[in-house]
Design goal:
alpha/beta
Length: about 425
């Protein structure tokens, strides 16, 4: 009689938005063995849901409408995903789900197992991230509805920045407001945490270095890291602060908002729409929020949007170097940072006075190290992997957990 085939542990990683749910699946018995086996998304939630999935080699496994599920039924959509996984990943068992959560407030400095109490606390943070937090929570609740026995873990984009000194976290406002939670939180923490672990593997001599990491994408920010810890970052109370982004303005004089309220009659909803959806590269260019389209465009306004972006990246990187008392390395990551050689080149040119100089060929080839031999400051391109970071945290948390739910996961594979 043949022995039953052993099942691999699988971790479902979820990044939920208002109209889409991105997911990936990692397999492995330990962090060093974690392997991404598939990724995809459910898009068009609330209107016309579509399911897409690819394997580790980027081959299409599924691509089609989800007509059998009501458009707004998140539990039903997640149930569809689990059913599909059950048939697609026959040699695995789902042991946990890890969620990207935008805001952890001051309470959550590390990943946590999701419980009703944790969910209630996360709901209390919705006013701090009204466009993101509700959808993060909705995915947790929906998954618990269709798979209540499955352990779920929340990993926070704000947690990495809790190591910053107080002056990097505090606004110059009345203390009672600071104590109520009006402070600089910072975001993209899971991305920065991954880079903090990856950079010493690439360049061990920089393990204790002062590094500015440029997370440049549709949402963009910079982080000052020393010895792998966050010392300062450009985003603040919300993800609107800091650099210009695809549709967000970055730094803006608060007096502009008062002016718009008084002179243009704009209320909170109108300001929110302006600041989150109509500003940034899109607002300046009038062409697109996509850096690729702007670089390809012959529009003078598109060129100005690119120049403004690169100017602000260099300007704010210099400020972060000041916060650390020096600069030992620069890292580019995320969609624009990893893929746009022209943006990297323009930023580096503006940082030349700090000793930054690129090797043009290496930059165009997207080599890992793109600085010239004579550059006093080494420059790297390191792809980020927030999903792997979440999977790693989820595995760690469950490995240290006790109780039957963590020890006896239910199989994804059909019996």
């Amino acid at each position: 009689m043949s022995q039953p085939k052993s099942l691999r542990d699988a971790y479902l990683i979820i990044n939920a938005g208002s109209s889409s749910l991105k997911f990936s699946v990692f397999c492995g018995a330990g962090k060093a063995e974690l392997e991404a086996v598939l990724s995809g998304q459910i898009s068009g939630i609330g209107t016309e849901p579509k399911f897409e999935a690819k394997d580790a080699q980027r081959r299409v496994l599924a691509d089609g409408a989800m007509d059998e599920v009501a458009p707004g039924d998140r539990a039903g959509l997640l149930g569809f995903l689990l059913s599909w996984m059950r048939h697609e990943l026959k040699d695995t068992r789902l042991v946990a789900a890890g969620h990207r959560v935008v805001h952890g407030g001051t309470r959550f400095a590390t990943p946590v197992r999701i419980t009703p109490q944790v969910l209630a606390e996360l709901e209390g943070l919705i006013p701090l991230a009204p466009l993101h937090q509700p959808h993060n929570i909705a995915a947790m609740a929906a998954l618990a509805e269709v798979y209540p026995e499955l352990p779920q873990v929340a990993c926070f984009d704000t947690a990495f920045h809790q190591t910053r000194p107080w002056q990097a976290q505090t606004f110059a406002i009345p203390r009672e407001l600071t104590e109520e939670g009006v402070r600089r939180y910072g975001f993209h923490g899971l991305s920065y945490e991954y880079i903090a672990q990856r950079l010493p593997q690439i360049a061990p001599e920089l393990a204790d270095a002062r590094v500015v990491v440029c997370h440049l994408g549709s949402g963009s920010s910079l982080c000052a890291m020393r010895a792998g810890k966050s010392m300062d970052t450009t985003m603040g109370f919300t993800a609107l602060d800091g650099l210009p982004m695809g549709t967000r303005p970055g730094n803006i004089d608060p007096g502009v908002l008062i002016y718009l309220m008084r002179e243009k009659g704009m209320g909170a909803d109108a300001l929110e729409k302006l600041l989150y959806h109509k500003s940034g590269l899109l607002g300046v260019s009038g062409v697109s929020n996509d850096m690729r389209a702007l670089l390809d465009s012959e529009s003078p306004q598109a060129a100005e949007a690119v120049e403004l972006f690169c100017f602000q990246v260099a300007k704010q990187a210099t400020a972060l170097a000041t916060a650390m008392g020096g600069l030992d390395a620069v890292v580019f990551t995320a969609g624009v940072g990893e893929n746009s050689a022209p943006v990297r080149a323009r930023v580096a040119e503006k940082l030349a006075w700090l000793g930054v100089k690129l090797d043009g060929a290496a930059n165009r080839a997207k080599a890992t190290r793109i600085s010239a031999a004579e550059s006093r400051v080494p420059v790297f391109v390191i792809p980020t992997d927030e999903e792997r970071m979440i999977a790693s945290h989820t595995l760690d948390l469950l490995a240290n957990a006790t109780g039957a739910a963590a020890a006896a996961p239910l199989p994804v594979a059909a019996e």
